[in-house]
Amino acid sequence: MANIYLLPLFLSLIAISSVSANFQRDVEITWGDGRGQITNNGELLTLSLDKSSGSGFQSKNEYLFGKIDMQMKLVPGNSAGTVTTLYLKSPGTTWDEIDFEFLGNLSGDPYTLHTNVYTQGKGDKEQQFKLWFDPTADFHTYTIVWNPQRIIFTVDGTPIREFKNMESIGTLFPKNRPMRMYSSLWNADDWATRGGLVKTDWSKAPFTASYRGFNQEACVWSNGKSSCPDVSKQGTTGSWLSQELDSTAQERMRWVQKNYMIYNYCTDSKRFPQGLPKECLAA
User: Fold this and answer.
1) Three-class secondary structure of residue 254 per DSSP
2) C-alpha 127 chain-centroid distance
3) Which H helix or E strand runs over 2?
4) Which of 101, 167, 251, 279 is catalytic?
5) Mapping DSSP to helix (H, G, I), strand (E, B) and coil, where does residue 47 land?
6) Would you say 220 and 93 are in contact if contact means Cβ atoms under 8 Å apart?
7) Annotation marks residue 244 as catalytic
8) Cα–Cα distance between 103 and 79 in angstroms, integer?
9) CA-to-CA distance for 231 and 234, rounded, in angstroms?
10) Is 16 exposed, middle or buried (0-12, 13-18, 19+ CB in 10 A)?
């Protein structure tokens, strides 16, 4: 049992280097009528939510594969009904998307971290987690690694989920549509907290989430071309474009999933009465 208590401490101590980001250069605030603010010479961005509106921003660049890091400090206190997001998404009605969503909760209760992957507008690949730390007390780094072989979700450098390219068995994988990075803070009290049973307490508004350290190592898509000449031949061992999980990383991910995962679509047989998705059976 001792290891169960020591590992969260070990994971929280893993150093994540602070990235020299500039939000004024790299993103644009796209909605919220002044509720999104960039300060500290472009090093800090805040989003706020009140009863009238939330707010959001997006990257100026589009990517076709990349490693996206963002340091975030979530809404503190009673955040029930609120959702803070960080995701990649392509435009259109048959879009691709890779999601981090942070579902707020009552004071003292942990956030739910919701992840999902969409390809050609089809998702239904949810995994949800609790975290081993308070995500409102300080900044923590959330990362999406997206390369032609896999998608890896990490928290402070610890992998929590891997979605492999299994097109060979008929599972869709996002690889053809360039995506932007988006983030937002909005009210979703019809479903976010305990299935909508707990509503947003507007007396606690405005709710605020903070961002810093946006890092984009990516194949930037511009004018129909990628900044990476040929992704199929790119990448050296250890680079994000060919990154995979070694045995140590796999062990850490299994530990997180065993102790902190609260929902996995791959084990929800009631949801899939005709049989679990193919990638679940192959995993």
Assistant:
1) helix
2) 11
3) helix 2-13
4) 101
5) strand
6) no
7) no
8) 8
9) 5
10) middle
As to burial, measured by CB atoms within 10 angstroms (0-12 exposed, 13-18 middle, 19+ buried), residue 50 is middle
Which residue in 259, 245, 247, 262 sits closest to 8, CA to CA? 259
Question: Is 101 an annotated catalytic residue?
Answer: yes
Q: CA 104, CA 192: separation in Å to the nearest integer? A: 7
First CA to last CA across the chain, in angstroms? 28
Rounded to two decimals, what is the model's pTM?
Answer: 0.90
Distance CA 262, CA 276 (A): 18
The full length of the chain comes to 283
| Dist. CA 147–CA 98, nearest whole Å | 12
pLDDT of the chain along its 283 residues, tens only? 444 444 444 444 333 333 367 999 999 999 999 999 999 999 999 999 999 999 999 999 999 999 999 999 999 999 999 999 999 999 999 999 999 999 999 887 899 999 999 999 999 999 999 999 999 999 999 999 999 999 999 999 999 999 999 999 999 999 999 999 999 999 988 876 777 778 899 999 999 999 999 999 999 999 999 998 776 655 544 489 999 999 999 999 999 999 999 999 999 999 999 999 999 998 6
Handedness of CA 248, 254, 257, 260 (dihedral sign): negative
**Structural tokens at position 166:** 């299994």
Q: Give the span between the Cα atoms of 114 and 103, in whole angstroms.
A: 7
